[in-house]
Write a structure and sequence with these properties.
The chain is mainly α and 443 residues long. 68% of the residues lie in helices and 4% in strands. The protein has one domain. The longest helix is centred in the C-terminal third of the chain and has 29 residues.
Length: 443
């Protein structure tokens, strides 16, 4: 049993380390108006296979340990006054409600595939709650992955090119080729850094959480070599985040830095101040230095007056208007998870090329549009319970970091959809939820 436990533990850390790599098999392609429709594709990611293998071994460990036979519904019901237990059951109900949308969704196959992704993410959450994964090792795995992503992002930005590699899950990106995510300043076109992820914004979200985990490791380490490695890692992570030019990622990052500074400043522990201030200073200097060196694209992203930026903002506003119309058409039931873009195509605008159909860049509106009022109420209730209970427990550094990781994701979710629509985003979201739920449970 100990050997099986070690395999599950090592496999999970490996899974987190490999999470940014998007190698996948597209086993059913989809098109709208003769153009590729990404949100209609059915894919199987290499990391999904690894996750299900881990979950299978975890179930075997549960059986050997006798825990499955101890499960008793009456026992769980009696503990509903425990906020962590209540939040967990709300998550289960949310998964069930999301799955139930298959009965009235516009396309049942799309709903099934997206629900299956949600199911595997919540199965992972359940495993994290029961299994004793070391948060230090989880943080280390995430940071190690982010350091590699930072190095890749830096190379991508300075070469202004991302080569295609199907085995690594990389698509070709070039600032001169349509479809690549760029920003246009007055004088140049700049390719934003992707890392190995499908979009620069997703890389930014991954890097923000990685930075918070790096702070967690830094504040718990007294080793001089570790301090040097932490500063090097911080530089690579911050540079990688910077070159995504993701406004939502930058906003969450700045919010986290300010919150951490205020918390450490008010803290009575001088040792924490000694550890945090050099890291914060290095981080701020790197970000400011890059902002000065690349002031033109930074100004373009902040001001948003260049043609491409204006068009992007207008398109997002159009997506928001479409979301409200779709919500108005299906207020109680939603269109079914995974069916948002199909709903836009069938009910609101059937003339766009397939790549134009995107989910609304706001996860809260998206959940409401796909699962209806009841699903959205469950979703928001889960977040409310977590935030309410964690605010009372911010005296511990691990609780603080997990809380900031959750808030960063929720901030980014106001401006993007990948924490709901993409496999990697779902895993990131529910993994952070899992550890925040565990923090509520253990305190």
């Amino acid at each position: 049993m100990k050997k099986l436990k070690k395999i599950v533990e090592f496999g999970f850390y490996l899974f987190i380390f490999l999470l940014p790599w998007q190698t996948r098999l597209i086993w059913h392609d989809a098109f709208l108006n003769r153009f590729v429709w990404e949100y209609g594709r059915f894919s199987l990611y290499g990391t999904e296979i690894l996750l299900w293998l881990i979950l299978f071994l975890y179930a075997a460990w549960l059986w050997q340990d006798g825990r499955i036979r101890k499960i008793n519904f009456t026992f769980w019901r009696s503990r509903l006054k425990d906020q962590a237990v209540l939040a967990y059951w709300l998550i289960i109900f949310f998964v069930l409600v999301s799955g139930a949308t298959i009965f009235w969704s516009l396309n049942a196959e799309l709903t099934y595939m997206r629900w299956f992704g949600l199911l595997e993410a919540v199965a992972m959450l359940s495993m994290v709650l029961v299994f004793s994964f070391d948060l230090n090792k989880v943080a280390l795995s995430w940071v190690a992955a982010a350091v590699i992503q930072g190095g890749i992002a830096i190379c991508q930005f300075f070469s202004q090119y991302v080569p295609a590699n199907k085995w690594l899950g990389l698509a070709l990106h070039d600032p001169l080729i349509g479809g690549s995510i760029i920003l246009q300043s007055n004088n140049e076109r700049w390719l934003r850094a992707y890392g190995s992820l499908p979009h620069p914004n997703i890389l930014a979200g991954f890097m923000v959480v990685a930075f918070l985990f790096l702070v967690f490791l830094a504040l718990r380490s007294d080793n001089k070599l570790h301090k040097v490695l932490i500063l090097i890692s911080s530089t690579l992570i911050v540079m990688g985040l910077f070159f995504t030019f993701s406004r939502s990622g930058w906003l969450a990052f700045i919010f986290s830095i300010v919150f951490l500074y205020i918390w450490v400043y008010k803290c009575q522990d001088k040792n924490l101040k000694t550890k945090f201030y050099p890291l914060a200073a290095t981080t701020i200097l790197v970000f400011v230095f890059l902002s000065v060196c690349f002031w033109e694209p930074v100004l373009t992203r902040i001001v948003g007056e260049q043609d491409l930026e204006v068009a992007s903002i207008q398109l997002r506003w159009t997506f928001t208007q479409q979301a409200w119309l779709l919500i108005t058409n299906h207020p109680l039931t939603g269109v079914g998870i995974g069916n948002y873009t199909l709903g836009i195509y069938q009910e609101l605008n059937g003339s766009w090329p397939g790549y134009y159909y995107q989910p609304v860049h706001n996860i809260y509106l998206l959940v409401l549009a796909e699962t209806g009022l009841f699903g959205a109420a469950l979703f928001l209730s889960i977040l409310f319970i977590l935030i309410k209970n964690l605010i009372k427990k911010l005296g511990k550094i691990d609780n603080l970091i997990l809380f900031l990781a959750l808030l960063s994701i929720l901030i980014i979710s106001l401006f993007d959809h990948y924490f709901w629509t993409m496999s990697v985003g779902l895993i990131m979201f529910w993994l952070v939820i899992a550890y925040n739920l565990k923090a509520v449970k253990n305190n």
